[in-house]
Amino acid sequence: MTVDDWYEQRRKQGIASAAQRVPAGASDEELQKQQQETEEEEDNEKALRKARDWDDWKDTHPHGYGNRHNMG
């Protein structure tokens, strides 16, 4: 089964993702605005996750934690 076949099967079953659902009477501008908002939300989530991971890493690795060999 190819990806296209799978999507076609899902469409026939009436199962579609939120991005594929189009409200009745929606214009292209509204769809673009909606798509941009979802992309911004995803970017914000990724940035927040990255910032939290970095903060956790800094908690477990204090300043000067690195290679301490040959320091005299």
Automatic annotation (TrEMBL):
GO cellular component, one term: cytosol
Any GO molecular function: protein phosphatase 2A binding
Pfam families xref list: TAP42
Stretches with biased composition (Basic and acidic residues): 45-62
InterPro entries linked to this entry: TAP46-like
Annotated GO biological process: regulation of dephosphorylation; regulation of signal transduction
Stretch list, region Disordered: 1-72
Name of the protein in question: IGB1B protein
Species the sequence originates in: Pycnonotus jocosus
Gene: Igbp1b
